[in-house]
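BUG: 3D viewer hangs when loading the predicted structure for this chain

Environment: internal workstation, default settings.
Expected: structure renders.
Actual: progress bar stalls at 90%.

Input used:
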Amino acid sequence: MTERQITLYYFDTKGIGEPTRLMLAAGGIEFEDVRYGLEEFTNDAALKTRLPFGQVPALEVDGVMLAQRESIARFAARLAGLYPDDPIDAARVDMIIVYCNDTLAETTKMIFNGVPGAPGTTMFAADERDKMLAQWRETRMPEQVARLEKLAAGSTMVGDTMTWADVCVFNFFDRLRDLMPDLSLEPWPKLGVVCETVAAHPRIQEWMRAHPREYPVQVSSTGIQIESRTTGKR
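Structure tokens produced before the viewer hung:
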């Protein structure tokens, strides 16, 4: 099969583009990881005319521009062999993805006063942000995460092998830990095992080691932190 030419366009952060990066990395699929600063993206009129909806993340595949985070992540999952062939399993994977994204969207509203990356959007003051996140963590988060815990099938979320759902659950908790560094998965042991399954994947490990700024520590389900020992950039 001819190797595809793939380029991911997104900001210089993990954010909503990271699941696609992780999927491509897990599949050993070569891609160009083009990262923008906010001002750089704002002023890149040439790129914006090529984006289907004027937004990133976007994935260019053999000259065809694809957009919307779930669509491009699903495409990457298919390329990487992380999307189930069985329609029911595929639907179960999809529902977990949407649920994780909807839950993370709640936290985004506690950090930004608009759409991240959009002109005029700014972050709330640190004390206000911390107060809203602390309240969400105490009230809504336990029930929301408990629903995910019930769905875990063992070392994976769906079926017997790692899928897109597992990668996105791993990313879900990674992003929560960026906001709440002391967060432990100990109350949700099955999800902890799922996250450790993903973190143990050799190519995921390689990706994290190559990006120590985004992954400065590795955190087990019990909350033990181990500093990354290598540096480098893909």
